Amino acid sequence: MASVTIYDVAARADVSIKTVSRVMNNEPNVRPQMRERVLEAAGALGYAPNLSARSLAGSRSFVIAVFVDASLTLDHWRSERGSDYLQRIQLGATVESRGAGYHLLVELIDHDDPRVRQEVGALLAALKPDGVILTPPSCDNEVVLELLDKAGTPYVRLGPEKPEGLGPRVHMDDVAAAREMTDHLIGLGHRRIGFITGDQRYGASQARREGYVAAMKARGLKVDKAWLQPGDFTFESGHKAATALLALDERPTAIFASSDEMALGALAAAAEAELSCPGDLSVAGFDDSPVSRLSRPQLTTIRQPLVEMSTLATKMLINGVTRKAEAGTGPRDELLPFTLIHRASTAPPKG
Amino acid sequence: MASVTIYDVAARADVSIKTVSRVMNNEPNVRPQMRERVLEAAGALGYAPNLSARSLAGSRSFVIAVFVDASLTLDHWRSERGSDYLQRIQLGATVESRGAGYHLLVELIDHDDPRVRQEVGALLAALKPDGVILTPPSCDNEVVLELLDKAGTPYVRLGPEKPEGLGPRVHMDDVAAAREMTDHLIGLGHRRIGFITGDQRYGASQARREGYVAAMKARGLKVDKAWLQPGDFTFESGHKAATALLALDERPTAIFASSDEMALGALAAAAEAELSCPGDLSVAGFDDSPVSRLSRPQLTTIRQPLVEMSTLATKMLINGVTRKAEAGTGPRDELLPFTLIHRASTAPPKG
DNA sequence: ATGAAAGCGCTAACAG
DNA sequence: CTGTTAGCGCTTTCAT
Questions:
Q1: Do B157 and B243 fall into the same domain?
Q2: Which of A123, A221, B71, B257 could be joined to B263 by an S-S link, Cβ 3.0–4.6 Å?
Q3: The domain containing residue A265 runs over which residues?
Q4: Burial of B8 (0-12, 13-18, 19+ CB in 10 A)
Q5: Which chain B residue has the Cα nearest residue A95?
Q6: Do B72 and B87 lie in a common domain?
Q7: Are B235 and A293 an interchain contact pair (Cβ–Cβ within 8 Å)?
């Protein structure tokens, strides 16, 4: 019942606790023979160093925290969006942490609440995490960033497009991705292309719209205001926006939605309007979420390297790359490539 | 930079550190006036008790761990199943933990690996979590349960149908749910009902099949072997199984899939066979995952109370209900109700 | 290459 | 009601 401590191991191996400590931390200056004895004793006793003690006495906590916005996550759950955005981020971080002997703590924070300063301050003081991964849109919160800086806690911002130079980040070029998808549609021969925007609380939404507009303009295509429909990433909003687009006098021959769920909504709207896809209407999504493969036709979409992003972010944190980065070395900015995945929902327009 | 400690607060409030400790832990025997002074000082200093120190000195760690199977989760990710099973479980646990000042640690464990004993043993020794939530199928792993018992760590098994009396659990009656769905189809007038089973590594898969078989037999309907098709919860497996079912000489008029993703696969197979749903073929799913609303027609399915289950499990852990339960008091077994959600994919058969 | 001593910041068990 | 004294199990100095 009483757990085995470093003293038990030291006694059994007949060495000092310091030697045990050295072995457990892979420190130098231990003869192979001693190391062997300690390892044997630790194994026999089933010893594992107590994390709290290590963290209290030492300078590391072996904890990586992931900050996730509370209200948006609850929203997400209630609206049953069906995106596995956070899940994919978490997967990369969990696997990478585990590999390095770290533990992943998931913390909800109200990044829009005035109490965020108190809340995050307390969190950092209590947890003393060795690193923090900031998911959108918390990655853009200046109070959070300031507290992190003040506490000297290394962090990585995941996905933010906008505020540059605010701290290390790992992200994707949403503007370029949206541009490429729009170019893809134009390349197929589409000229009237409708766009459905995402939830404005996420920075990526604006970036994607920018990419769309930029690509249209670059090809000399005018962007009719009516072709820009608001959405919030949900199926319903996509359905509604697409219905509006398809009711236009000169209706678009293609619709580019800022999320796969909205693209599915557009697909449903097309079916209701008795338009076939991709014959009468091409539909493109964004995210390559699992649902993009559950529709007929399957969606042409943009694959975001979310798992790779969180894996890299975790690696940076654990390797202390960020710490060095803060001292002026190492990369502070990693841009990961996206992929346009061409499936069955986009094709040349009829006629 | 140097963090503020209990001594700083005590000095500023001109009390002993013990009084500060009492206030921070809401212990009795502190005059309101003292409490006020301490609170003021703590607020001014931005003090939050260090978790490691609390956990090292005291008997609580303020950490709840969620054990998730590593290889299945990676499988899940690679196959892009699109289920938000774990996400919903985690949501309930995270919100509930946060409300009580606890923190949620997500740990991947290889529950099928021979090293699981060593791995989980080390995890418990290092973390000393105040409670562990076991998700399927780790909740059925006897080595894990044994280690937990030996370590005296309270835990709750989430979802397990099978091994009873092995420890506190919060679950749903999968057998009854599958029976009810089958009854629903029979009630609509269906007699030839195909069934697609789930991944056999999950206990729920067998339970759902049992429910289906029981309902059929209870109504005096024979279960043709060919009507039981194997699946693994994925869209593709559902597609394949449904294709096989629809190729039968006497094809079923309804298909009951053990997951929503497989039901969507069945929907796709029906479309390819030029069968309309629900006109020519009724399709039912299981889980009420977000994707069940992204199809046309939307799926009739079973809603699992996953968030409620994990919320309750967390509550039990934090309130120490389990600890008492282990001493003989309190409920060791919570059965939460499911809901049959009737949407558009099921209807009476033609003719 | 190894060990002894001194805390890390807090709670527990007592005193008063 | 409040304070004092010991540790919790480790890592850090700093000796040897």
A1: no
A2: B257
A3: 174-304
A4: middle
A5: B108
A6: yes
A7: yes
